[in-house]
Write a structure and sequence with these properties.
The structure is a single chain. This protein is mainly α. The chain is built from eleven helices and no strands. It has helices spanning 2-13, 20-42, 58-100, 108-130, 145-151, 157-174, 180-205, 210-235, 239-260, 273-288, 297-300. The protein is elongated and about 95 Å long.
């Protein structure tokens, strides 16, 4: 129990992953303005206006913030589901290619390994594409040099990699190393990979409507501006501290929404895409070490 309590306190106080850095200035402004209002009230200036509490009802602002956060989390979770599907489809494709494609010539195994590495390359290019980055050295060991050079000039590298995988599958079908049922099954998995790419692009390129974001920010600023006038008569010199705490709460909720609505970047709260791609690479490397108990196509006849 003591260890759990210590862990809880450590998580509550850790700066990494927190939005404190993003909202620190907002909190200071709220506290400073609240202190100024309490100072004016101390000198009997008519700054106490409790009626201003009716300008923006707290429940209205709360509902807007909840909607903002829920919408952002839906985008984050949808992105995680898409990448979970990418992982599963890559594993299933790799497993079926490794087991189902017959090796009727000595170089067939090398071609299968190249195809399996292209599956990892699809995930890596998808990650880079979503981050707006170009093809880099991460991909150099996952494909032949000719493909790597060609990939650098492509506008959508994941689509090109998916094309190479599909082309490999059709080549094996034409060589009678795959039957039509196996080809159809593998093509469905490949199509699912491309669908996941499109879903991630939809999340990336459909941000929160600008009018909503602007209006929410305006309401937050207005609410925090009016708050000291509402509470100064009751709290006196504590007005600045309470205003800062309220600002921490409200601006923090909004900042969380901003932090997670695009889950494909490098922030502490974004999806761990680098680790996910590394996991897929390890899975493929492990698979390549296994020897499938498969017969050649000629033996199946």
């Amino acid at each position: 129990m003591i260890a759990e309590k210590i862990k809880w306190v450590r998580i509550a106080l850790q700066p990494k992953g927190s939005v404190m850095k993003a909202i620190f200035k907002h909190i200071l402004w709220c506290g400073a303005f609240g202190f100024i209002i309490s100072l004016l009230h101390h000198f009997d200036k008519p700054v106490s206006q409790p009626i201003l509490a009716n300008v923006i009802p707290s429940i209205v602002l709360g509902l807007l913030l909840v909607f903002r956060t829920n919408t952002a989390y839906e985008r984050f979770w949808e992105g995680r589901k898409c990448w979970g599907s990418i992982v599963n489809n890559v594993r299933n494709l790799a497993r079926q290619i490794w087991v189902s494609v017959d090796e009727i010539s000595p170089e067939d195994k090398d071609k299968k390994i190249t195809a399996l590495n292209l599956l990892v390359a699809f995930a890596v290019t998808t990650k880079l594409h979503l981050r707006g980055e170009g093809v880099n050295s991460e991909l150099e060991d996952l494909m032949p040099s000719t493909k790597y050079i060609k990939l650098k000039i492509m506008n959508n590298p994941p689509i090109e990699v998916a094309f190479w995988i599909g082309d490999y599958l059709h080549q094996q079908y034409d060589r009678n190393c795959l039957n039509s049922y196996q080809l159809t099954s593998l093509q469905e998995l490949l199509n699912s990979l491309v669908d996941n790419l499109g879903a991630c692009e939809r999340i990336l390129k459909t941000p929160m409507p600008l009018a909503y974001a602007i209006h929410l920010k305006q309401l937050l600023i207005l609410y925090c501006f009016l708050l000291p006038f509402q509470i100064v008569d009751s709290l006196g010199w504590w007005t600045g501290l309470v205003s800062a705490l309220v600002g921490f709460t409200l601006f923090g909720i909004e900042a969380i929404g901003l932090e997670i609505e695009n889950p494909f970047g490098y922030d502490a709260n974004d999806l761990p895409l680098d680790a996910i791609c590394e996991t897929m690479k390890r899975n493929i490397d492990d698979l390549i070490t296994l020897t499938p108990n498969a017969r050649s196509h000629t033996e199946n006849i």
